[in-house]
Structure formats: structure tokens, C-alpha cells
Amino acid sequence: MSETVSVSASAPARALAPANDSSFENVWDEIVWRGLVHVSTDQTALRDLLGGEPITYYCGFDPTAPSLHLGNLVQLLLMRRLQLAGHRPLGLVGGSTGLIGDPRPTAERTLNTKDTVAEWVGNLRAQVERYLSFEGDNAARMVNNLDWTAPMSAIDFLREIGKYYRVGTMLKKDAVAARLNSEAGISYTEFSYQILQGMDYLELHRQYGCVLQTGGSDQWGNLTSGTDLIHRVEAVSVHAIGTPLITNSDGTKFGKSEGNAIWLDAEMCSPYRMYQFWLNTDDADVVERLKIFTFLTRAEIEQYEETVAAEPFRRAAQKRLALEVTTTVHGPEATAAVIAASEALFGAGDLGALDAATLRSALEELPHATIVGGTTVAQALVETGLCASLSEARRSIAQGGVSLDGTKVDDESAAITGALPGGVAVLRRGKKTLAGLFVAPAA
To answer: Which domains are seen in the chain, by residue range?
Structure first.
């Protein structure tokens, strides 16, 4: 389990409102500095494009799960940065491509039902909308590719779109090549995904004058499917930006905690868990995370870089990162509740004053157990794993090293009632070893 890190009272009081860094002449220069461009079409043309009159750009999100995750957050924040620079975003949720799913490198996806995909389309649309502004001259617009795909017959699809694709070129795409070389192979369904995504770009170019698509670099074959199609059909050049796939400095996969994805939906990943995920960022990774996932300026990030080098024990950069991203995803009130819970758990606040839902989610991240009301502190120490035996638990209590809900325990037979909000209790052994107790009523 990841370490639950305490937060000092000196943590920043509020997150910054999203704004681009005025020290950069062009938003292109800023996103390059932040490490958001791994691969792209012509960089000189892109810099001119993003530094000129407002353009329309898009990013697509397929409903292959009920929520977006941290990998998608990279795209959402890039979309927001471009909108803050004056450009017009199109947020596409793939009601048709989500029925297929882009090819994974190893195996065929399980096809979800149409009802499930439709429900997830609604979930993802609401999430995407949180990161964009729908007001002003460059107001965002949401689109669903099912709107132009569903009315098209298979014959029309093959005649109007399929004729522009060459199978030899399609076979060279990384995702397709990987699957062809695997035991699973690839179905025609998933093989056709790149055509559908290319058609999306063509449709958005025709309807809205869209000239830029962003996505992860692992989607580069699908991104260029659209740029190539538009070039053949419309005889114009459009652009694509592929962001890097983010990994940790030790080579492990980013965006997972204890093997579970960090989802943007609070029901699938609590704000407390999200906050702790960022708080546990390694010193070697934290500056790059600040660049990509926050709107801190270059000057502010360089200051944190100096602090990490000179005083890593302060973990100031991690605290700011956790504050900024959790606020971006879950809002300031939820983030404030999370920080209050973190401080109270480590003795710097009142456990009894915490929000019940936040406290329960915090305790789920600790070693925890469900007990019956009336269980003794000594028994609870064993059930949570804080002590290996009752005799060890009794010794710890006798030595004054155990507290319950922030109050020192001197009686091994003291009963736990779950007096904290939400019917829970907090056990501590020593200064930093905590466990949560979910107290069920006695029979």
C-alpha cells in the first residue's frame, strides 16, 4: 500500500485559477516546454497556426469505461491550455468508436452493449465539459461521432471513405502491426477503427473547419489517419499533436495506485485517494508532473525544482502538485476536506469535525478492519494488523504508545464505539502507524 503522507499546515491555501504563462510568446512554446509534444505534424506550421488567429481543434474520448482516467487528464488540460490561448475546442465523445474500441497491443477488446456505451457517453461528456468553457467567442462545443456514423450505410462507408485507404499503409500502423504479430491477431472490426477515426476528423473539418487533433502518442496512427484522409479528399493540410505517454522515472506505469487506475470519477477514486496519489510522487518525477498537470508558471515550477534539490524532506512540490490537481479534478471544497482529513489523522486537526464521507474514504486507504461495537482496543490492534498478538497489543497500551481517535489509551479493555462521523474510529500505534475501524452495531 502506498504511504499515507501527512500534510503540514504550511501547505498552499488555494489552487491557481487556470491561466497560460504570459512569459511565453506563443502557446506552442509553452506546451513544448511543458513536455506535451512527443510527436506532431510540421512544427513550424503548428507554431504559426497556434500563434495566429483562432483555430478549431478537437480531441476524442472513447467510452470504453464509465470514467476517464489520468491519461485522459493530459488531453483535457492540453485542450484547456489551447482554449485559454483563444482557440476553439471540440470535445468529441465516441458513441460509435466506443462500440468498437481502438486496438490494444495484446488482445481484442470485449464489445460492450449499446446501452452501456450510451450510458458511458453521458458520463464522459459530463467529465469533459468540466475542463472547457462554453462561453465567449471561442466557446467549446461537444460532439458525438455516432451522429454522422449511424446514418451511413456500409456501402456508403466503403465507397465514400474506404476507397481512400490503402491496406498496406493500414497494416504498418503500430497498433495493427503489434496485433498481427501476436497470437490473438486482429479482427476486421478493430482493424477498421483507424478509418472511423479518420472519418471523424474529416467530418469535423467539413462542419467546423477543424484543423488540429490532439491525442496520445500511442494513437499516432489513428491521428495521421485523419490528416492523410483530409489531404486526399480535400487537398489541404491539417495537423496533429501526439502527447507523450507518461511513465515514472523508474520505468513503471504512471496513473496506477496499488494496481488500480486513478479515475476522474469520485465514486471510482475518492478525492482523498487522488490527493494521496499525487502526494506520493517521487522527487525525480514531481517537476515534470507540475509542468504537465498544473497551470503553475515556469518561474514557480523552477522555484519548486530548486526546493526539491535543496530541501527534498519538505515535499513542498508534492504538496502543491496534490493541491492543484485534486482541485482541478474535484473542486476546492472536496480538496479542502481532504487536506483537513490528512492533517487531523496526523494530529493537526479535529477528527470529530471532519466530513463523514471524506473520513471514511481516508480510512479506506489505511490498514483497516470492520469490527462490532464494543470490541476492545487490544482486539482491534490485532484485527487491523497494528499488533501481531493480544500480548503485544497489551504491552503497547501499557507503554503509552496507543491512541484512539486522538486520545491516549491506558485501558486495554476500553471499548470502541465508532464515535467519529460516519461510525468510524482511528487507531494509532506510535507516532505514524495508523489504522481505520469501521464499526458495525453490536447484535
So the answer is: 36-243 (3.40.50.620), 256-352 (1.10.240.10), 366-440 (3.10.290.10)
